[in-house]
């Protein structure tokens, strides 16, 4: 198992800066997810680690080895592509044995290894098929197994589930997650889908505009976002302007105890999640703008006294949606224990 | 494979990539150098015995000695293109639009003049039509040269037209026009043709350029009174001075390059790859 | 009243429809006539003529029996195969370069590569003469360097001059015919191979080559048939120096006025080029000239 360290990686294409001064460590056996909007530089980061882009500045280390100048084919990095990138002129088995074959592993040995891996993801019966005759999910598994067959120092997954339907995504997410845990390979998972990132990763790195906004466990980035961007990007949040004053934070319409939030004094932004509000006749007066019944929960958009709009989730058991009309007045309370304050 | 990863290789010394660029540079040089030299010689004459000062006298000589050939070649090319369009476009349409027995065979046959060596077509035509036949006497005329050029160029016009037709969903256009009461001819002229106009123009310019450069067929059917530009080039290369021959070649290259630039501007089809050399 | 209104357009439609149905065919007739009269008939007559010999298939037998003729046929094959091979290898490099690299002036490079496609063979011959001939730049330059006569380095009127000339018109065709195919290769597939440990050469051999093989086959077909059929270039630089089949046809017909023998050679040459091109179309579909 390998620890992968990026040390101040910058990549410019001409005058365009794709990523700027990225430093991060993917710990041994960990699944680190890089998440961010499209064009934030996450693909460039991945391609730099894979050896397809040469960083303009900075070094890359696999454990204590500097691999910055090592060619892609000599880095021993497993890559799983968004479009699978399977070799259409080869069978599934030939796809999986390709890497070991390039490394000079004897035929019998690499076949046995490949079959073992295919069995692990439950598609060993497809070994002799053409990749193009497989479903998207099956192709994705071939792509994954092909990358694992070289026993990579690090596994890089580039948006591996885009284009699959929602149900399949969920199943694959579970399967791949389990597989990665079982094998224990150091993994970097690049995606624009924060749900995927949160579900699969040990830690999440939020990338925006070429630099890292925050790295932390899914819980940390969700509950203690470092800034407004992270708060907005990870999950649904209601960002409310407020004034911090010593131990209290004044939202205008209500005041909450700062408690352990340790805000700096002055203008701050309060991050609340839709679940932080309860519709229980509390002190906050709001008016209903819209309600959406989406099965397990009711999503509501309400307007606060200071004209900020927030969304909140309530249980259909608590509220009869048919009772609520836009314009109705309701009373909310805010559970301050989950609220987070950013500057 | 930690061993190989340890063996840091600097991309600065990537011999494979350097070799790749070297080959590409060599190929580009190989393609460009002769054209540059032809232009150079057209102003300076031969490099043998030192260089004089640049002069336009070779161009004056080339033009005055070959003006007739230049004009005739352009005339032939114009007529060839017009006939190509008039008979080629309807034929391409019919081939694409209608189902009939041996349709595939007929489509395959349209490229036959590209597949048969020009020298064979030239010999065959002069053998069959060099003397009067069926009351038609075209031996030694400009007409027989034009016919040869039409045969040689029309496959290109037909290929481009067929490809363009396939790309514009002509059937829906046609159905809507017909449903509005237009007859076949009006549908064809006012709806189909305007939609494939770019393809036709690109094909026409290609045909013009090919006709201008056609040598292999012309060489067997021309007479000294009907000398085309490539035949004049051939004569010039054998008899004229290096400077004058290069000037004539330069004139030809400029004509062709100008035409092909227009094709590249107006069409994605680009330059077709056949042609007799 | 109503009946009249209906009946008149109907009759017009019926008549119009009949004309309409025939019109496309009528308008295609000139094309059919052109091919029939000026391609079909002449070729048929040439074919017929090639059998007019004292012994059965005499002219065909002679192509293989008479040393000069046989050598011309073999020489044509040899040059075509050599030039095709050289052009494919160099063309692959160039096509890769055009398909894969984004750079300023790319359109210009494409233009430079594609313009020679329209040069007639005699012009290509002249281009070779000014570079490789006695008064050409390279021999002059080498003579200047070495002090020897430029003639020593003038290789244009030889087998190698012919190979250079043929490569000059084949290389651009081959390059341009392979570019779009290489553009279509999914680059992430190549990157997948690299990440699995394949070198650039292995990636090309195992991943890229199988994908672009049909385009290479097309380029081979194009190059070979164009080389076999080429006449203008050879007429100017190889006449009397290197015997190839098209030159032999010219000599036999124009020099010896032996139309029947020339016709047999023309038929053989046609069969070679036509079967190569249509053989490709049958196997891979699509046009060699696209």
TrEMBL record, chain A:
SMART domains: AAA. It is a peripheral membrane protein. It comes from the Archaea. Its main location: membrane. GO terms for cellular component: ATP-binding cassette (ABC) transporter complex. Residues 4-234 form the ABC transporter domain. Keywords: ATP-binding, Molybdenum, Nucleotide-binding, Transport. It is found in: Cell membrane. It holds the Pfam family ABC_tran. InterPro entries: AAA+_ATPase, ABC_SmlMolc_Importer, ABC_transporter-like_ATP-bd, ABC_transporter-like_CS, Mo/tungstate-bd_C_term_dom, P-loop_NTPase, Transp-assoc_OB_typ2. It catalyses: tungstate(in) + ATP + H2O = tungstate(out) + ADP + phosphate + H(+). It is an enzyme of class 7 (translocase). Its EC number is 7.3.2.6. GO terms for molecular function: ABC-type tungstate transporter activity; ATP binding; ATP hydrolysis activity. PANTHER family: SPERMIDINE/PUTRESCINE IMPORT ATP-BINDING PROTEIN POTA (PTHR42781), SPERMIDINE_PUTRESCINE IMPORT ATP-BINDING PROTEIN POTA (PTHR42781:SF4). Belongs to the ABC transporter superfamily. Sulfate/tungstate importer (TC 3.A.1.6) family. The complex is composed of two ATP-binding proteins (WtpC), two transmembrane proteins (WtpB) and a solute-binding protein (WtpA). Part of the ABC transporter complex WtpABC involved in molybdate/tungstate import. Responsible for energy coupling to the transport system. This is Molybdate/tungstate import ATP-binding protein WtpC. It comes from Natrarchaeobius chitinivorans. The lineage of its organism: Archaea, Methanobacteriati, Methanobacteriota, Stenosarchaea group, Halobacteria.
UniProtKB/TrEMBL annotation, chain B:
The chain crosses the membrane at residues 20-44, 69-93, 105-126, 146-168, 188-209, 215-235, 247-267. It is found in: Cell inner membrane; Cell membrane. Its main location: membrane. GO terms for biological process: transmembrane transport. Pfam families: BPD_transp_1 (PF00528). Residues 70-263 form the ABC transmembrane type-1 domain. InterPro entries: MetI-like, MetI-like_sf. CDD domains: TM_PBP2. It is a multi-pass membrane protein. Keywords: Cell inner membrane, Cell membrane, Membrane, Transmembrane, Transmembrane helix, Transport. One of its GO terms (cellular component) is plasma membrane. The keyword Cell membrane applies. It comes from the Archaea. Belongs to the binding-protein-dependent transport system permease family. This is ABC transporter permease subunit.
Automatic annotation (TrEMBL), chain C:
Its main location: membrane. It is a multi-pass membrane protein. Keywords: Cell membrane, Membrane, Transmembrane, Transmembrane helix, Transport. It comes from the Archaea. The keyword Transport applies. One of its GO terms (biological process) is transmembrane transport. Residues 73-278 form the ABC transmembrane type-1 domain. One of its GO terms (cellular component) is plasma membrane. The keyword Transmembrane helix applies. It is found in: Cell membrane. Belongs to the binding-protein-dependent transport system permease family. CysTW subfamily. This is ABC transporter permease subunit. It comes from Natrarchaeobius chitinivorans.
